[in-house]
Amino acid sequence: MHEILEVVLVGRIIKSDTCVAEGVAYLGKLDPRFASAYARTGKLPLRLKKDGFEPLLSAIVSQQVSVAAANAIWARLKKAKLAGPRKIMWATDDELRDAGLSWQKVRYARALAESRIDFKALRDAPTPQVIKRLTEVSGVGAWTAEIYAMFSLGRADVFAPGDLALQEGARVLFDLDTRPTGKQLRLMAEAWSPWRSVAARLLWAYYHVAKDREGIR
Question: Cα–chain-centroid distance for residue 111?
Fold first, then answer.
């Protein structure tokens, strides 16, 4: 009974390439344009990451910078051994700045380190509860929380409509006159439930092949 209740509250969890393939098949039947996009992208990356402090800090690093810039900053933080909560708290502002964080992201990193989030408890929490808890932390907006739920918790039915690459990928794939706003894309994505996370993976991959640019790290 507990397992059934957990599935109802949490939804499907993406655990393997087989799960992603199931989502792709569902979306392709739902809308032929998804099937057409998949024909161009080929196999989608699984993109699962571990959960906890480090991947959430990594998502903060990725905010409003290019994939290449985010990768470079993250590599510097890791090299400086500044990717854990205690290390963040003990580091000076100058040390965090030298690792590539902006002043704003220094504040965000410290807020996350002080937040005392129970990451293990989030594994079994309903997605809206996960988003609510994470966005209580300064610097963790909806996009960051949705990315965490999608890739670190493996939630199959999460979307990140505020992502510019997803917006542009949707504009090209669905031949829209203008790039959809976050609100418009969120409404569009409702039709792609219960596989919105796979729709996001597909749109990111499609954005990459259509625009020859990276969609997400």
Answer: 20
